[in-house]
Amino acid sequence: MKLVLDTDACQGHARCLALAPDLFDLDATGYALLLVATVPPELEAAAREAAAACPERAIALEP
Predict the structure, then answer these.
(1) Secondary structure class of 23 (helix, strand, coil)
(2) Of 3.40.50.1000, 3.40.190.10, 3.10.150.10, 3.30.70.20, which CATH number belongs to 2-62?
(3) What is the pLDDT of residues 14-44, one digit of tens each?
(4) C-beta contacts of 33-38 below 8 A and 24+ residues apart
(5) Which residues partner with 26 through β-bridges?
(6) What is the pTM (predicted TM-score) of this model?
(7) How confident is the model at residue 6 (pLDDT cuts 50, 70, 90)?
(8) Of 40, 45, 48, 57, which sees the most CB atoms within 10 A?
């Protein structure tokens, strides 16, 4: 599974970081950054939660 982040859509709510700190971080201005592009199997549930929690739908998952 791969994570895709639409940096233009991100509004800096940081829900992704709260739910999946092994997958996301924040840049100096508070917007999301991907730590990994390919999600390890043990973090797939966290990736799904983070994507579902993003109010801007800035996070997508690809097989």
Answers:
(1) coil
(2) 3.30.70.20
(3) 999 999 999 999 999 999 999 999 999 999 9
(4) 33/5, 34/3, 34/5, 36/3, 37/2, 37/3, 38/1, 38/2, 38/3
(5) 32
(6) 0.93
(7) very high
(8) 48
